[in-house]
Amino acid sequence: MIRLTAARLLSSMRRAPHALVVPLVVGASLLLSAPPAAAQDAIFKLDPASRNVVDLVMDSAMAAGLPNRSIFSRALEGIAKKASNRQIVDAVRRRLVSLRTARARLGGVSDDELEAAASVLEAGAKPEELARFRARPQGRTQLEAFTVWADFLARGVPKDEAFSAINKLWQDGADDAIFHSLWNNVQSDILQGLSPGTALQNRIRETPQRATASAGKPPEGP
Amino acid sequence: MDDRKFTILATLSFALLVPAPRELAAQLVSGRLEAGQYTVSDGVLPASALRFAPSFQFDLPHAQISARGAAFLSEQNLQIADGIVSGTFTTPTVYGVRAEMIGNASRAVDERSLGSDQVDVQTRIHVPFRQAGGLWFGGGVAKPWRVAVISSADVLDGGVWGKLGDGTSKFGVATLTATFTNFSFSKVASVRDSSTALSCGAATVGALPTTSALDDAGGTACERQSRFSDMEGVLRWEVGPLEMSAQAGYRLGDSYDVTPDSRHWSSAHATVWLNERVAIIGGGGRQPALPLRGLPARSFGMAGLEIAYSPVSRGAPPVALPHIMLVKKFEMQPGNTPDMRKIVIRVGGVERVDVMGDFSDWSPLTLVRRGRDLWELNVPLSPGMYHINVRTDGGPWMAPPGIPTMHDGFAGDVGLIVVPK
C-alpha cells in the first residue's frame, strides 16, 4: 500500500514538474518510513484478505498516531514463524488495541516504550495497572521495567504479584540494573524449581534496600 | 498374581504418574503405561488377555535411552511377554550430516518356548533436512540367543522420512516414513527335516557333518545362507487430540526364507487423548514373522487406555533428533561503532546458527563461526527494545537463554533485548 502511494506520487510528479520539491520531500519521507523491499515481499505471503486486514490495521494505527511499524513487524514475525493467516490477523489486531490502550494510559512516550507497554498488556497486565507508570522523571525510561514485567507474566508469576513488585520498584526509583538483577534472580530461582510467585516474593524482599539507594538520587535531566 | 511381579508393575505405574522435578521433567523424562485387552492369533494359539505395557524414555542432548516391556494377566498370573532396553547416541551435526549409534537388548517370550534374547548394534548416517525430513542409511549386526537355527545376522537399512504441517496447521502434522531393511544370516538345518532338500540345495554354504544337538539322529546338517528384505511404509498423523498411524510392508526373499503368511502385512493404531495424560487406544492388523526371534506371523487386535507422562512432544520423528536447545550462552556486546552491537552465542555441535527479530524485519541472519562453539554477528541496533529469536541447524525458533522472554502469540516464545542509551 505504501508502495502504491509512492507510485502515485511519482506519477503526479511527472504530470506537474513545477511542483517537484514538495512531492519529492513527501515521497522521500514516505519511502524512508516504508518497510524495506524484502519485508514488503514477505507480506505477500499472506492471502489477499489477510493482507488487506493488515493494511487496514496499519492505516488505523497511522491515523491514530501509533507506531504502525510495530504492527507490520508483528505480521512479519508471524510469517517468518509460519503462523496461519488467522493467527497473524489476530496478532496485528491485538497489537493495535494494545497500542491504543497503552497510549491512552501512558500519554506521550516513545514508540519503543509504547511497544513495550503493548507487550505487557498482551502478556496479561491490566490497563489500569499501566497507568501507574504514566508519571516519570525526564530521562527515565520504562523499557526495562516493562520487559521484566512481561517476562514475569509469561513465566507464570501471578499477575497481581508481578504488578505489585514492578510498581513498587518503579515508584522507589529503581534503575535498569535493579530491574535486571531482580529478573536474573527470579528466573534463576524458577529454573531451580521454585514456584514463580514464591521466587518473586523472596527476591523482592531483598531488593528494596538496593532500590532505596538509587531512589535517593535526583532525577536526571533539567 | 505373583507378589514380586505385582510390586514391580505397581512401582512402574506409580513412577509414571509422579511428576518428575520441573526442570528434569521439562526436558528429559517421558513415560507411558498401556493397559487393555490384547488379542493375538498366530494360527496355532489364539489368545486374549489383559495386557500392560509400560515404557520410559530419557532424552539427553546427544543420547536417548528408553525401556519398554509388556506383560499379560492370564488366569491371575502376570506373564512377561517381552522387554527391550535401547540406547541411541547421536554425534553433533557436521556439514548437515549426523552419525547415530543404536544398541538394543531385548527378550521376547513366546507361549510355546522359553523365549529368545537378542542384542543388536547398529550405526547410521542421518542427513536431516531442516527437521522436516531426512534420509538415513546404516548397518549393524544382531545376535540372537536361544533361537537354535539362526546365526548372528547382518542388518543393512536405509530410509527416508518427511513431515508435513506443523503444530499450528489446521490439518495437524503428518509424518511419512519409508524404510528398507535387509537381513542376512545363516541357518543350520538337519538333512532329516522336510525342508532339507531345499535347505541343503544349491544355496548351501557348506554341508557339514555334525553331531550337533539339533541333529538328534546324529546325521549331517548343512548351513545355508538366508536373506530377506523388508520394505515398509508408515504414515503417522496427528491432528488435535487424535493420533493415527498406519503401516504396511512387503517382504522380499525366496520361499525358503519367507513364509507365505509373512509376505505382506499391515496394521493401524489410533489414539484419542482425553487430556494431557489419558488416552483411549485401539488398533489391529497383522505382523510378519520374526525369524531372528523365532516368532511366527500373527494377527492382533487391541483396545484399552493409555496413561502418559510426556512433557516433551508426544509425536516423535521416526529417527531420533536432538530436540533440546543447546545454546549455552547469549550475549549482546558493544560493536565497533556506537550504533553497532555484537550478538555472541555459544553453542557447540551445530553447523549453523541464525537469529531474527524486528531489527532484521524477521529475516534470518546467519552468525559467523569464530571458534569451536563461538558464533558472532554484528548488527546495527540503536537504543531501544527489540524482539529476537535464535535457531540452530534450521530447527525451531526459540528465545535465547539469559534474557527476558515472553510468549510471541504464535505458539512460541521470543526474547526481549533492551539496548540502553
Question: How does this structure look, described?
Answer:
Chain A is mainly alpha-helical and 222 residues long. Chain A has two domains: 1-122, no CATH class; 128-222, no CATH class. In chain A, 74% of the residues lie in helices and 0% in strands. Chain A contains twelve helices and no strands. Chain A has helices at 2-15, 21-33, 37-43, 48-63, 68-80, 85-106, 111-123, 127-130, 143-155, 159-171, 176-191, 196-215. The longest helix of chain A is centred in the middle third of the chain and has 22 residues, at 85-106. Chain A is globular, with a radius of gyration of 21 Å. Chain B is mainly β. Helices cover 6% and strands 56% of the residues of chain B. In chain B, the strands form three sheets. A 14-stranded antiparallel barrel of chain B has the order 1-2-3-4-5-6-7-8-9-11-12-13-14-15. The longest helix of chain B is centred in the first third of the chain and has 15 residues, at 3-17. Chain B is elongated. The N and C termini of chain B lie far apart (72 Å). Residues 16-27, 193-199, 201-218 and 311-324 of chain B have low confidence and may be disordered. The A-B interface holds A 35-36, 38-39, 42, 73-74, 76-84, 87-88, 90-91, 94, 110, 112, 115-116, 119, 122-123, 141, 143-144, 146-148, 150-151, 153-154, 176, 183, 191-193 and B 21-23, 166, 168-170, 356, 358, 361-364, 384-385, 387, 389, 397, 404-414, 416, 418, 420-421.
